[in-house]
Amino acid sequence: MIEAVVFDVGRVLFEWDLRHLFSRLVPEKAELDRILSEVVTEDWHFEHDRGRTLAEMTAERKALFPADAALIDAYAARFNETIPGPVPGSLEIVSELDEAGVPLFAITNFGAEFWDGFAPDQAVFEKFRDIVVSGREKLAKPDPAIFSLAERRFGLAPGAMLFIDDNAANIEAARQRGWQVHHFTGAANLRADLVRRGLLS
Q: According to the UniProt entry, where is the signal peptide (predicted)?
């Protein structure tokens, strides 16, 4: 029996794409592709999710790519522009679960500094009882340790929680710990699964 639902944030609740910002700054496609594949990459961004500071990361990157220093600074200063808005339908599902009395939690790979600049303006997070933020904990999915931490923080057994994430590796890590899981591909499929499980009608 599911006692709580645990959401990922990026690409489950909110869209996220580095290209959404950098396509405004780099109009030429080949150069944009170079920036996103070599300079401001998702793998590099993930270092902030794991707990490295922006100051350390950007200084190091600008030393490697001095000609791209302004774009690296834009990544740090304008990160919220990589989040164009909510994933269609997802916030409505959160509200319906909350209204139905289902306890809500989240585990997100999100840099601490970026989280502090984004989360306070998003009212949806007020519906969550606790949110584990990877950058604050210096642990990131799919490391099993972040799920262990969440189990202690949330005070529930793994099998009592339904974990929702768009990343297959994160889903498998949670499954290996005994969590119930939903691999997110869109709000319609999630809603259907929640209805099937008796969490929504």
A: none
